[in-house]
TrEMBL record:
It catalyses: S-methyl-5'-thioadenosine + phosphate = 5-(methylsulfanyl)-alpha-D-ribose 1-phosphate + adenine; adenosine + phosphate = alpha-D-ribose 1-phosphate + adenine; inosine + phosphate = alpha-D-ribose 1-phosphate + hypoxanthine; adenosine + H2O + H(+) = inosine + NH4(+). Pfam families: Cu-oxidase_4 (PF02578). Belongs to the purine nucleoside phosphorylase YfiH/LACC1 family. GO terms for molecular function: copper ion binding; hydrolase activity; S-methyl-5-thioadenosine phosphorylase activity. Keywords: Hydrolase, Metal-binding, Transferase, Zinc. It comes from the Bacteria. This is Purine nucleoside phosphorylase. InterPro entries: Cu_polyphenol_OxRdtase, Cu_polyphenol_OxRdtase_sf, Cytotoxic_necrot_fac-like_cat. The keyword Transferase applies. It comes from Stutzerimonas stutzeri (Pseudomonas stutzeri).
Length: 245
């Protein structure tokens, strides 16, 4: 097994040379079904020894230290650092080698960096986190002018697969009327198909962040990724961003 697994993704965005990022897939680890094989989530019922092996391998492969979070669909953004896994849904760092990391299996991972290559951040944004302001909290924590930021939207459940109730649509429209464009009527009466990517872009644009890349990789449709809606008893993949040492 090579250190870097062949189908792990490198985000396609114009980040400065000193900014590194990676999205893992299901490949390259030791977890067994239904978590096969590179599950990085320690809260989903997988063998703790397998998760620990996968996390060690990730750190060795990337040459950075992931700062894991205890994600709770909040709008809390903290400074990434070693030690106890903090309860938050976003982290930022200005220290080389300290990777901001989020785990997902349909929710939207969002990576940030500044154009100068001095600060990075990662946010876990399901619909609750998006509506609750996790992206805005991350921007505030980064403390970088909006025009100096680059953002990449990682793999998430796509608009053809993400059916939600009217309360989800109403939560977004109450804050941004333009969010109506991110919802299409479902074939099930009274329900809607939601576009997490568009919702994220709308909220970022409202804060002046328009250099947004990525989007379009559907975790539900793409078997490379874990998907909670496709298989509720499943693992988690990671999206990470860090400054080179």
């Amino acid at each position: 097994m090579s250190a870097w697994v062949a189908d792990w993704l490198v985000p396609d965005w114009p980040a400065p040379a000193g900014v590194r990022a990676c999205v893992t897939t299901r490949s390259g680890g030791v977890s067994v079904a239904p978590f096969d094989s590179f599950n990085l989530g320690d809260h989903v019922g997988d063998d703790p020894a397998a998760v620990a092996w996968n996390r060690r391998h990730l750190q060795q492969a990337l040459g950075c230290r992931p700062a894991w979070l205890s994600q709770v669909h909040s709008n809390v953004a903290i400074e990434a650092g070693p030690g106890v896994c903090a309860q938050a849904d976003a982290s930022w760092s200005d220290r080389p080698g300290e990777a901001c990391a989020v785990l997902t299996a349909d929710c939207l991972p969002v990576l940030f960096c500044d154009r100068a290559g001095t600060r990075v951040a990662a946010a876990h944004a399901g619909w609750r986190g998006l509506a609750g302001g996790v992206l805005e909290a991350t921007l505030q924590a980064l403390a970088v002018p909006a025009e100096e930021l680059l953002v990449w939207l990682g793999p998430a459940i796509g608009p053809a697969a993400f059916e939600v109730g009217p309360e989800v649509r109403e939560a977004f429209l109450a804050q941004h009327a333009v969010a109506a464009e991110a919802f299409a009527p479902s074939h099930n009466a009274g329900r809607f198909m939601a576009d997490l990517y568009q919702l994220a872009r709308i909220r970022l644009a409202a804060r002046g962040v328009n250099a947004v890349y990525g989007g379009g990789l559907c975790t539900f449709a793409d078997p490379r990724f874990y998907s909670y809606r496709r298989t509720p008893h499943t693992g988690r993949f990671a999206s990470l961003v860090w400054l080179e040492r």
